[in-house]
Amino acid sequence: MDDIALLFVIQNAILLIVGKKVKKKDRTPLLPIIALLGIYSLKRPERFVKKLIRINKGVGLNDNEKKARAIIQGFKQDNEKVLKDARRVARKQLDTSRIKSKTAKRMIRDLNEGIKEKKSIKQIKNELIKKYNNLSNIERALDTELHAQSEFVRREHSKALGYTHKTWKTQQDSRVRETAFHNGVANKTVPIDSDFRAGGLRAKQPGDAQLPPSDRIRCRCYLIFE
Q1: N or C: less crowded end of the chain, CB within 10 Å?
Q2: Domains in the chain: how many in total?
Q3: What whole-number distance in Å separates Cα of residue 188 and Cα of residue 199?
């Protein structure tokens, strides 16, 4: 997994922070290989970044990390076209010419500079936090994007394995948000390519960018397939 994948996720987080909506065709989700392995942390995105970089370097890995690296390398070899398309989308996302928000433009230009200077993901993230003084917003947005990307990948992977239907599941605890959409889609089953619909909203999976922030930010829902 190369750095452009993480940069794409961070780019989405920046756009989410400043409230800029991206056109659907430009929002094509990157297939983050790590999400397939389930070794990311929704509550601690920094740990996710460190783990990904560590596995990518391949130095001092434990047995589970070695297995993860082997899966990643195999995925990269078997999905060159997917990764090529993902990089193309990522580069397009880094173009500021179509973005109206001055804040978003400044942040994305800083991100571009970090890429040119070959800084690490951790360095870029820390510099953005320091300059824009919004640690909680950046982490919240990153949490949201990681989860959204993960659920997209799980759906695509399940479809490739032959599953035809998906069911929306909540964590079934006191923290589940009480919105018309979440109440309406809980335990609902639909065809795998169809939208879940409730409360005048629709989404293909938890974290879908079609949803408003109230139904998307730090959503903990997940899909099961059959």
Answers
A1: C
A2: 2
A3: 14
Global confidence as pTM? 0.53
Q: Length of the chain, please? A: 226
175, 220 contact by CB (below 8 A): yes
Q: Are residues 197 and 117 in the same domain?
A: no
91: which residues sit within 8 A by CB, 6+ positions away? 4
pLDDT of 43 over the 60 cut: no
**Least-confidence region, from 96-110, 133-147, 173-187, 188-202:** 96-110
**105 exposure class (CB count in 10 Å sphere: 0-12, 13-18, 19+):** middle
Distance separating alpha carbons of residues 14 and 150, to the nearest angstrom:
18
Give the full edge-to-edge strand order of the sheet including 165-169.
189-191, 165-169, 222-225
Kindly state whether residues 101 and 196 are assigned to the same domain. no
The span from the CA of 93 to the CA of 85, in Å, is: 12
Cβ distance 11 to 111 under 8 Å?
Answer: yes
167: tokens are 């069911």
pLDDT cut 70: percent of the chain above it: 50
